[in-house]
Design brief:
This protein is of the alpha+beta class and about 475 residues long. It has two domains: about 90-385, DD-peptidase/beta-lactamase superfamily (Beta-lactamase), CATH 3.40.710; about 390-475. Helices cover about 30% and strands about 20% of the residues. The strands form four sheets. It has an eight-stranded antiparallel barrel with strand order 12-13-14-15-16-17-18-19. It has a seven-stranded antiparallel beta sheet with strand order 4-3-2-10-9-8-7, sandwiched between helices. Strand 8 (about 330-340) and strand 9 form a beta hairpin. The longest helix is centred in the N-terminal third of the chain and has 28 residues, at about 1-30. It starts with a helix and ends with a strand.
Length: about 475
């Protein structure tokens, strides 16, 4: 009798959790709002509407909450031709989402004493070395700098390979030798001096992991990341393993043309095959290591180096966002994009929550940002919540000084004052600007926020629908 009672209580708790998760999920999907909007006039859109607008065939969303998958949702098709719907088994190309996974494997080897974060990697690389030149006279390429994109190597990422082509070795690719379609990896800055997002840097990290373990890269990842995180539907193997090929989504271009299956030789930089659920397991395993010291991937001391409040030169695996000095939380994010596929991991460190989205379409930035904002608002994260504004009465303020022609991202932009009402023309589109503060105006139909300088002649600040910040100068009076 006691056992039955205990079982019933456990089931009740489980059902309560599921009910709560469903409530949160519904709230997220009913609050897809623009980044900036007028109170009571937010144009709420559905995921289906945005997918149709941007021609995204299918996607899956998974939400992580304190060490478990809380909820998930599928939309659209993994394969349009055969009408195969996206489900929890659908495998996507994860592209650059393989980078934080590679980074955690490297950090694990650091903790095992096999690698050193700040040692010259040439001491352990075999068969290929970082070129010695004017950039490396004083500063060296290190594991820390390879992981954090401060190694000084170029940003380059070139074409992939078709299944019938001969695949070059890592050394051939790094040297730019025959069989490789890529130029040699090139140092373009002093190591540690600046942030340059570098795919060649991660190819070097891939080789380093192989050289110090005498194992294939994919075997290292299996042992150090996939198995501890219980990721059973992920692989860096190229070509894709047969067990994953049968459920792999087809990638599509902006005009919904299917992309051919191709092989990615920059494995660590962009060669992961995976599912949103597996990435969710990786994410909550790492967050558990940080919050609870579970040490399944790396130690809590090491996670403190990953989730830090430093600048771009101190990143170790993720983009970290912590511009609000009044809060302790850190938002973390990494995106991925390859032929026909886009994806994102986006989370809150302190709340131990994250959303993972994978799609087999490419024009997804606005769609993903709508989902991220809705998640941030529903769970009250300190970053990325949408901002609601009210109409601000500017009275009879003279707006003539705001009028003029401006240069913004290669757009033709003209602001006019018409009977003390501002309008903005961007290329061939015209929008009214609504005052929401003394010097701040909003174009609500395109979610564009414009902050005028308090003194005429200074730069304007444009904040677009994705929150991107631009300083804009007047080009014509």
């Amino acid at each position: 009798m006691f056992s039955c009672k205990e079982s019933k209580e456990n089931n009740d708790q489980k059902n309560t959790f599921l009910d709560t998760s469903i409530v949160h999920r519904k709230a997220v999907f009913s609050n897809l709002t623009p980044n900036y909007y007028l109170k009571g006039k937010a144009e709420k859109q559905s995921i289906e509407d945005l997918m149709l607008k941007y021609k995204v065939p299918g996607l899956r969303i998974v939400f992580v909450d304190k060490g478990k998958i809380s909820w998930s949702k599928n939309y659209g098709y993994a394969n349009l031709k055969d009408s195969i719907k996206v489900d929890e088994k659908t495998v996507f190309t994860g592209a650059s989402l393989g980078k934080p996974i590679t980074a955690m494997a490297a950090l694990k080897l650091v903790e095992q004493g096999i690698l050193d974060l700040d040692e010259d990697v040439n001491k352990k690389l075999k068969g290929w070395k970082v070129p010695i030149n004017e950039f490396t006279k004083k500063e060296k390429v290190t594991v820390r700098r390879l992981i954090g994109h401060t190694s000084g190597f170029n940003r380059y990422y070139g074409p992939n390979y078709m299944p019938y082509e001969t695949i070059p070795t890592i050394e051939q690719t790094l040297r730019g030798e025959q069989l490789s379609k890529h130029p040699a990896a090139k140092l373009v800055a002093v190591p540690g001096s600046k942030y340059i997002y570098s795919n060649p840097g991660y190819l070097i990290l891939e080789k380093l992991l192989e050289d110090v373990t005498d194992k294939k890269f994919e075997s290292v990842i299996d042992e150090l990341v996939f198995k501890p995180s219980k990721m059973k539907t992920s692989s860096f193997v190229q070509p894709i393993p047969e067990r994953l090929l049968t459920t792999k989504a087809t990638g599509y271009s902006e005009n919904l043309q299917p992309q051919p299956y191709n092989i990615i030789t920059f494995k660590a930089a962009g060669g992961i095959w995976t599912t949103p659920d597996d990435l969710a397991r990786f994410t909550y395993t790492l967050l558990n290591d940080h919050a609870k010291g579970t040490h399944k991937l790396i130690s809590q001391d090491m996670t403190n180096k990953v989730f830090n409040k430093g600048g771009n030169l101190e990143k170790l695996g993720f983009t970290l966002l912590n511009w609000n000095n009044d809060v302790d939380d850190i938002a973390f994010r990494h995106t991925g994009q390859n032929y026909g596929f886009t994806s994102v991991i986006f989370g809150s460190v302190n709340k131990e929550q994250a959303v993972i989205i994978m799609a087999n379409g490419v024009n997804t930035e606005d769609l993903f940002n709508h989902i991220q904002r809705a998640v941030a608002k529903e769970y009250n994260w300190d970053y990325f919540q949408p901002t609601e504004y009210e109409f601000f009465d500017i009275g009879d303020k003279n707006l003539n000084g705001y009028a003029g022609q401006y240069d913004w991202k290669n757009h033709f932009v003209v602001i006019t004052n018409e009977h003390n009402v501002l309008f903005i023309q961007i290329d061939n589109e015209r929008h009214q600007l609504i005052p929401v503060d003394e010097n701040t105006f909003l174009a609500p139909d395109i979610s564009l926020l414009i902050i005028f300088p308090k003194k005429l002649g200074g730069n304007l600040i444009f904040l677009d629908r994705n929150g991107d910040y631009s300083r804009v100068s007047k080009s014509h009076q």
